[in-house]
Amino acid sequence: MALPPGKGSELKQLIQQQLLKMDVHGRIREVLAETIREELAPEHRQLSTEDLIKALRQRGIIDDVMKELKFVTDVSGKERASSPKPSTHFVDREPPVMKKTNIDPTRRYLYLQVLGGKAFLEHLQEPDPLPGQICSTFTLCLHFRNQRFRSKPVPCACEPDFHDGFLLEVHKESLGDGSKMVDATTMLSVCDPVHMVLIKTDTFGETTLVASYFLEWRSVLAAENGITNVAVELLGLKYCFTLERQKTAEKERLFLVYAKQWWREYLQIRPTHNSRLVKIFAQDENGVNRPVCSYIRPLRAGRLLDTPRQAARFVSVLGYERAPVIGGGGGKQEQWCTLLAFVCRNKGDCEDHANLLCSLLLGYGLEAFVCVGTKAKGIPHAWVMTCGTDGTITFWESLTGHRYIHRPINPDDPPIVEQPKPLYPYRTIGCVFNHQKFYGNCQPTDAVEVCVFDLQDESKWKPMNAEAIKSVCSPGTASSVPPFPPLCASAIDAAVASNDIELQLRILVSEHRKDLGLSTVWDDHLSYLLSPALAAYELERATGISAGNEEFQDAVRRAVPDGHTFKGFPIHFVYRNARRAFATCLRSPFCEEIICCRGDQVRLAVRVRVFAYPESACAVWIMFACKYRSVL
Predict the structure, then answer these.
(1) Which segments constitute the Centrosomal protein of 76 kDa C-terminal domain (predicted)?
(2) Nearest to 11 by CA among 167, 201, 226, 220
(3) Mean pLDDT of 582-592
């Protein structure tokens, strides 16, 4: 486990100073003389390094040195509330602020160094980027035992120039490992892999998932690294891995046998069940089939999200993109992403959104399930359902953050009885599940509007055995999706981003009007008055509460003189590409009318407000407005 080049000399100097301070050289000479006199003289055998280290350990000299050492860590980055002792991440940054911290030097770390990439053949013909030129980039994201890291973006190339180091803490107090030093045997039992996700970002800011890989790091325990490894033979390590895989395969085999039996029983209830969307397994980004329950786990957002509705808003601003169908065609590609791949890419399909929202709602203590069914025109869809203690069923649309109360229609009621009109877009439902439970809909019809969500009634919902689900989906099970990574705070400065987008939009509007032969005069005061409206729009999306509209209308009336007309157009995006947003706005006849406004004393205004959420997701509100003198 080598240290990065810059840290090696620093550590050597620190150790050398400490050795001189404690007169360790003199104590070593004394131990050497005593060892030769007492133990080696009778046999006249040669003194080995191992003999000397053993003698120093027995006399406690090594322990004394380690207790006195102090380590230096980089604290220039933002501290995470969810990580009480953040691990060091060695990267080349601006001069960092360094301070001494009392980190226990006997804790175990794994140093992972990325030395570059090879054979990215799709970039074989790409020329090297010129200085200052915007180009597509690769970013490597890592997750290991509740720690997350991100490499510096590097230009896309056939051999991308990755040169980053990551110090991963194997022993974490926050995971309940206690405070004692872990030995090699204990580290061997740590089966968590290092999850590596490679993301490509193009020149327009669009992200693409390139690869997802689970690195088995424990082979390093068998490397010949001297003092860092203790009595772990390669044969024993291979046997341990083989035994683990055998246990995992057996659990998965037994669950598959049970799932097939459950499915046969389900089909025997009613032949039409064969056409219902009952999904027991789903394929991840690596092509591995996993039980759907393993994609969900209670997830706590720490201080990053305060309420379930705010969590729903956060999930809704993550981009939506249907998984591509290989070879074309109108079918739907089956691919559910692991959480790390989803949040690093910042976009995914409806199932990815539903799984994340369900996990967050479970973290807030709600009884939440993912629903699999269809919406209009029979399009497969996934959404979230929560069951209240009073029996209230609430649907959560993870792509928009909207909530709907479900009131079932009773088909046996006479026509004179007024039935509730569903406001939700869902048509059929085949199954519901979370991290512990799975239910197949076995009611006479799978139409959502008439479904009764009494999940304890086995005549309406066929359950899977909870122990069977637990065997392959519980935390720590090797066959389940790896432990969920913690959410990261946003790296976006909302005020700076808002100003940048607004400035770019002003330039784009002025150029567009110039092409039409129109002059442009901006009203800064009117632009500022649009801010409360944008804040109110986001508040309503996040909480469902509308507030502040009266003050906004009053301020606008005061800013628009008598005989003048005011027009405004708000629009919402989940990306920060100003040119792309402007092109979209022009496709709206209402917005195009404002931007291309003609008349007497025309004054234009634009206001941008970026609302930052975890994982650098953002809601971008833009309002264009104009005022002009009405001429009959």
Answers:
(1) 492-629
(2) 167
(3) 93
Nearest CA among 63, 71, 56 for reference residue 14: 71
Cβ 621 vs Cβ 569: under 8 Å: no
Q: What angle do CA 64, 67, 73 make, to 5 degrees?
A: 145
Which residue, among 263, 208, 317, has the nearest Cα to 573 in the 3D structure? Answer: 317
User: pLDDT confidence of 226, banded at 50, 70, 90?
Assistant: very low
- Closest by CA to 170, choosing from 130, 119, 229, is 229
Are 540 and 623 in contact, with CB atoms under 8 Å apart? no
Phi, psi of 83 (to 5 degrees): -120, 100
Alpha-carbon distance of 49 to 18, in angstroms, equals 21
CA atoms of 82 and 71, how far apart (whole Å) = 22
- Residue 594 structure tokens: 């404002």
Quote the CA–CA distance of 429 and 431 in Å, as a whole number: 6
pLDDT tens, position by position, 171-216 = 655 555 555 667 777 777 788 888 888 888 888 788 888 888 888 8
Torsion sign, CA atoms 78, 80, 86, 87:
negative
| Structural contact between residues 624 and 605, judged by C-beta atoms closer than 8 angstroms | yes
pLDDT for 499: 96
250: helix, strand or coil: helix
Residue 137 has φ and ψ, to the nearest 5°, of -135, 155
Distances (CA, A) of 606 to 221, 509, 550, 581: 60, 10, 20, 13
Residues with Cβ within 8 Å of 66's Cβ and at least 6 positions away in sequence, in order, are 105, 106
Q: Amino acid identity, residue 340? A: L
CB 624, CB 594: distance < 8 Å = yes
**Main-chain phi, psi angles of 215, to 5 degrees:** -90, 125
The residue behind tokens 């995971």 is: 175
d(CA 449, CA 492): 42
Q: What is the pLDDT of residue 170?
A: 83
- 469 within 8 A of 436, measured Cβ to Cβ: yes
